[in-house]
Amino acid sequence: LSPPGPGGLPYIGQGLNFSVNSAHKQFTEWAKEYGDIVMFRMFGQPVVVLNNPDLIRKAFSAKDIKSSISDRPPSFIGQFVAGQYNDILFRKYDPLCADLKRVTIQVMYKTGASKAELEALVSSEIQDYVSKISAAEGDVDIIESLQTTLCKLIGVLYTGKRLSTDDPSFQAIADFDRAGNEIITPSVHLVLKVMPWLRHLPGYYGNLFDRTMQCKERLKRDLIQKEKEAGCGLISGLFEKQTTENWITDDMILGVAMDLINTSTLTSRGVISGVYFLLTHFPDVQDRIYQELIAVVGADRTPAVADMSMMPYTQACILETLRFQSHLPITATHTNLTDDVELEGYHIPRGASVYGNLWLVHHDDRVWSEPWKFKPERFLGADGSLLHKDPSLQQMRYFMPFGEGHRSCMGVRVTYDRMFLFVTLLLQRHRLLPPAEGALPSSDPRDLVPGTVLQAPKFYCRIVPR
Ligand code: HEM
User: Fold this and answer.
1) Mutation to probe ligand 1, out of 147, 150, 267 (largest number of atoms < 8 A from CB)
2) What is the ipTM of this complex?
3) What is the CATH number of domain 1-76+329-362?
């Protein structure tokens, strides 16, 4: 039995009926009509949307890999940019993918993500950003200069040191970030997937492909090779691992480096611009964070990640931002390349594109009261403690901003830590106010700027000292 769903024109199916950039809205409409599993076709390709958190977990976490929907479909970037899927993000879920993901996470934590020295470097990058935006007078666009800081944070993760903006390693990251984010845009990537030969022709697609490959070469020459010789960050940590895990090739390390640039800058930009935007909208939330910050950290000491566990309200704001704005409203594409799968009595054909609809999960009004309101307190118990850790709470089953299962996000810890530092380092000494001229755009998440990652609309604010 096939899952129910909207029909459509022969072959084209629903291919012309919605924009890939706001697929989550269309998927959510269809869920109302067809239920928890919806299937439709796009240019002959079956597409399945899972609208219920338990189903998403079941499909994406199944222990038996044959019945888990954890592969990625063939893709242009995986094939031609990552050199035949020598990476994690675009690779099917074979044992090599699972091992590379496991080792990368291990090395990420060992060399960096949880080390105090690295946190100090991350914190200084963010403090520099805060000093820069708070020095500006009048109405400022605080997101404009964020991208440089995000690339510098990747520099810290990869090399274990701060890179200046004229360092060739930093420039290699920033250039790859620009080209990679352009080629990964769904509308661009879709064209290249259907017509991969466009990469050989002059014109927009051929130029973009050439530029991306040049950036890849620079990344290899100016960062990866240098880190291979000496270093103390994630990249040199992966090279060290080659001694015990001899299946790790140099090309895989380059693939991982490319993956983490593209998965981390756009998403981090979404969550940081998103939380600053909401704070500008809600001064009372800023005040409560400030009070908590002063009680735990004081006005002089620099906030550190270790303070986070003592600041439940601040953590609740971070969780609520992730729920409310659901920056990745649908998961990356999943598929099962080897077998057909039975899910809740429905037949999911091999090779179907499968998505988890995280947007719907996070705004389901049967679980979240007033889902379109920004209410950090929903994550707090009556005594003010954080509810997030309590798995018996039904709503926590409905919180999955980083996906679930074998393909879930590798940057969860990094993201929580960074959001905490961006929020506290700014609010300890400053207040975010609406612009003097003009109004703030709406804070309703349905008005976020669509794309692979939802972004806050362009906004101006004033930063004033406390
Ligand atoms: C900033 C907020 C972030 C959010 C909301 C987010 C969310 C997600 C989601 C929803 C997925 C897809 C899961 C799936 O396909 O089922 C994902 C995958 C991934 N994320 Fe993140 N992410 C964030 C930041 C990061 C960062 C900072 C990194 C790296 C340091 C990262 C690395 C990855 C990687 C490598 C994957 C692919 C894993 C795989 O294919 O197995 N993410 N993320």
Assistant:
1) 267
2) 0.95
3) 3.30.43.20
